[in-house]
Write a structure and sequence with these properties.
Helix content is 17%, strand content 54%. The protein is α+β, with helices and mostly antiparallel strands. It has one domain: Flavin-binding protein dodecin (Dodecin subunit-like, 2-Layer Sandwich), CATH 3.30.1660. A 3-stranded antiparallel beta sheet has the order 1-3-2. β2 and β3 form a beta hairpin. The longest helix is centred in the first third of the chain and has 12 residues.
Amino acid sequence: MERTYKLIELVGISEKSYEEAIKNAIAKASETLVGLSWFEVVELRGAIVENQVHEFQAKLKVAFKVTKSAQ
């Protein structure tokens, strides 16, 4: 069976953890994209405010299946 996927980059952000940042990115993407299939974390970083970790940022590659559109 042949399949084709579109690959996009997202950055998820959370004030709690990297895991939550990843979940936030996937959840938001799933609101407008169908056929989400897999993700790869390509970068972890964060923001510091007043010498404290302020937020966690996770850069992801996310793939979704390309399907035939209805005509």
